[in-house]
Amino acid sequence: MSQNNAALRPNQFKRALVEGRPQIGLWSSLCSNIAAEIICNSGFDWIVVDTEHAPNEVPGLVAQLQAMVNGTAEPVVRCAWNDAVLIKRILDIGARGLLVPFVQNADEARRAVAATRYPPLGIRGVSVAPRANLYGRVPNYHAAAHDEICVLVQVETAAAVNEIEAIAAVEGVDGIFIGPSDLAADLGHLGNPNHPDVQSAIASAGRRIRAAGKASGILTGDAESAARFFQLGFTFVAAGSDVGTLARGTSTLAAQCREKLVGSASRPSLTAQEDTSSEHRPSGSGR
């Protein structure tokens, strides 16, 4: 191969979804290239880099994608909205996994897919040498890029759940992701995604997604919940977030240290023991 030519790298995450292999993920909102480098080498299969609810902008995304190049996890960027300009910029900087929020119906799913395809298949604007094609070094990039781009759409309302079969039928949709918190809010259980009605709706939605031939995904808060959703047949499950892991880990460490400190305070210190023993020494004895 010429020094100036490179091959289009296969998207193993997309292939795994097609084959139905469970994919363990993590949600990333820290907006840090250093954090991205750490978590992408932690053994996860995919990592969502969030731009909807995290203050991520394009320059920071570039740094995070660069940091994740040699990791085990495929980056999946959640765009802030189902917008062709936002999606174009995310794809041009090299993201090959895309999670599109608040997709309500088949028309909106088609719009999301179209934003990831070059004409005549879609409306993605053509840049000659973006980071996505190694700055012009992948000769067949524009013709084959869509083969390696994984499009995941997010259903977050009861209305969207009712449209699952129509959304799944859209060509180019690789998976459907359930947004548990927003779905809970829409069902009247704001802040309580574990409410039985919400969990029942999620389980039902997952079954319908699979029956329609698409991969189903969801975000959970811990390994136990993730395992339960895999048992329910979900294919790609995020088992937590970098923010949550950092917050819990540091709080636990601080609490453990304080507990040790309080425990040690109840025992005489070495200095106190020395001071007490000196009171019983004969006068005139040397130290």
From TrEMBL:
Domain of life: Bacteria
Enzyme's top EC category: lyase
Catalytic activity annotation: D-glyceraldehyde + pyruvate = 2-dehydro-3-deoxy-L-galactonate
Region (Disordered): 263-287
Keyword Translocase belongs to the record: no
Gene Ontology cellular-component annotations: cytoplasm
Keyword terms, alphabetized: Lyase, Metal-binding
Bias type Polar residues, positions: 266-275
Documented EC number(s): 4.1.2.20
Keyword DNA damage: no
A molecular-function term among this protein's GO annotations: 2-dehydro-3-deoxyglucarate aldolase activity
Pfam families xrefs: HpcH_HpaI
Name recorded for this polypeptide: 2-dehydro-3-deoxyglucarate aldolase
Organism: Solibacter usitatus (strain Ellin6076)
